[in-house]
Amino acid sequence: MLQINSIKNGIVIDHIKAGYGMKIFNYLKLNNVDYSVALIMNAQSGKLGKKDIIKIENKLEIDFAILGFIDPNITINIIKDEVIDKKVKLKLPKSIKNVIKCKNPRCITSVEKNLAQEFYLSDEELGEYRCNYCDEIYTDVDFSV
């Protein structure tokens, strides 16, 4: 049986869609830190079937909007003295900036390299984003930061 101890103070990123834990781990650059981090992949979940979990034994500034874009079903637990001090439920952000890139070769962002890559949430039910400049639908499931 796999056993990961509880953390005293830090963050637990829970209910991550199975397979997305590594994306978040890489986005947060957790491979370069000097404190304890646990990435648990494909853990059993009554709600999701399988899920990923990240436990971070440290305070960390996290952009919840980007995590909400990656997976809006994530729950963030802020741990203080080994108990949950605060629980944050994420959702799809209304807009995102410089997280994904427009793939339309005729978009102004393809020509103007210093222009911010901005997208707005066009369909919350589908999780669909469109470019602010050319209205191109973002279709890729990967992201670049």
From TrEMBL:
Identify the residues that the record assigns to the Aspartate carbamoyltransferase regulatory subunit C-terminal domain, covering every copy.
Answer: 96-139
UniProt cross-references to InterPro entries, sorted A to Z? Asp_carbamoyltransf_reg_N, Asp_carbamoylTrfase_reg, Asp_carbamoyltrfase_reg_C, Asp_carbatrfase_reg_C_sf, Asp_carbatrfase_reg_N_sf
What are the recorded Gene Ontology BP terms? 'de novo' pyrimidine nucleobase biosynthetic process; pyrimidine nucleotide biosynthetic process
Asked if the keyword Metal-binding belongs to this entry, the reply reads yes
From the Swiss-Prot or TrEMBL record, what is one GO molecular function term? transferase activity
Every Aspartate carbamoyltransferase regulatory subunit N-terminal domain range: 2-90
* Coiled-coil regions listed in the entry: none
**Does the keyword ATP-binding feature in the UniProt annotation?**
no
Keywords on record = Metal-binding, Pyrimidine biosynthesis, Transferase, Zinc
Give the highest taxon in the source lineage. Answer: Bacteria
A GO cellular component annotation here is: aspartate carbamoyltransferase complex
Gene3D superfamilies on file: Aspartate carbamoyltransferase regulatory subunit, C-terminal domain (2.30.30.20), Aspartate carbamoyltransferase regulatory subunit, N-terminal domain (3.30.70.140)
Q: Which PANTHER family match?
A: ASPARTATE CARBAMOYLTRANSFERASE REGULATORY CHAIN
Return the protein name. Aspartate carbamoyltransferase regulatory chain (PyrI)
